[in-house]
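Page 37, continued from 36.
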């Protein structure tokens, strides 16, 4: 009934249906029809009609007053501000496993709630990405936690704590991880990466010298090679569903060690609100993982 109320107030203000119709952009017949519909709806006669002249009666004056109030409230509703959305350009880096598993959903959630955000995504190794954040080339990066202390100028947000396991072909004759690592060809997890250096340290501590024939930084590629029977590997655990009939994961028991994955960002980020929103969304997605970092529950 808002159209009818606007026409009514225009008639009251201008003194005639003709003038009101002209102002609103209607024909006189259309404006008259709106007034008639309003009277029928209210079951009230709003005007005293004498020939071609109309004059508000007492009921009409009362209805006009109420109509003006209603239209004013409607105008106020239109001024209600929508929730503020973020703006800006996010430069984000991520290691390959995070790009494949989590990043698409995180970015989708980020831009769907903040459509004015643009993003630049960079794939790389943890050391390269951490250095880029430290030098101000990236706003944040999802990386493996380094084996050295994180610089004071940077902040670390933990996300995942993934256990390393020995992965072997399904047909391997033993479940003894030491024997598997020393008798089968060893597919090494990139020794230049943070995770790979942790593996090297583990092998040294246990005085193991596997026969390394292949080295790769792509965990998924390593899994595929093990599934094909090429050898064994020591890698952070992954979803093995696709290879469950072709390989096994051997737990290290009390010798278990982990790879930590998190977000590194400047301690005083250029895009603080945007980066904090990214962190909140990423935590929400990672929290459902069986390998979510224990510290997530404290934040």
């Amino acid at each position: 009934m808002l159209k009818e109320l606007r026409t009514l107030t225009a008639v009251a203000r201008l003194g005639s249906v003709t003038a009101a119709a002209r102002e609103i952009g209607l024909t006189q017949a259309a404006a008259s029809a709106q007034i008639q519909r309003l009277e029928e709806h209210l079951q009230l006669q709003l005007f005293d009609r004498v020939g071609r002249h109309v004059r508000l009666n007492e009921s009409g004056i009362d209805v006009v007053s109420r109509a003006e109030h209603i239209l004013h409230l409607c105008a106020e509703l239109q001024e209600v501000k929508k929730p503020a959305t973020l703006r800006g350009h996010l430069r984000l880096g991520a290691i390959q496993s995070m790009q494949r598993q989590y990043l698409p959903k995180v970015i989708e959630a980020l831009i769907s709630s903040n459509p004015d955000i643009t993003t630049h995504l960079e794939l790389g190794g943890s050391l390269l990405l951490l250095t880029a954040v430290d030098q101000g080339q990236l706003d944040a990066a999802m990386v493996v936690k380094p084996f050295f202390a994180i610089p004071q100028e940077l902040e670390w947000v933990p996300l995942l704590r993934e256990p390393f396991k020995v992965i072997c072909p399904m047909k391997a004759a033993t479940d003894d991880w030491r024997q598997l690592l020393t008798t089968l060809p060893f597919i090494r997890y990139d020794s230049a990466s943070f995770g790979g250096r942790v593996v090297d340290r583990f092998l040294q501590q246990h005085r193991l010298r596997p026969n390394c024939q292949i080295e790769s930084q792509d965990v998924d590629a390593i899994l595929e090679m093990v599934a094909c029977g090429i050898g064994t590997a020591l890698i952070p655990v992954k979803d093995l569903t696709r290879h469950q009939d072709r390989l096994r994961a051997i737990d290290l028991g009390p010798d278990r060690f982990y790879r930590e994955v998190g977000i590194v960002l400047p301690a005083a980020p250029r895009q603080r609100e945007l980066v904090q929103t990214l962190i909140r969304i990423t935590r929400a997605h990672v929290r459902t993982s069986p390998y979510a970092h224990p510290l997530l529950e404290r934040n």
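Residues 58-78 form the longest helix (21 residues). Flag for discussion at group meeting. The longest strand covers residues 154-169.
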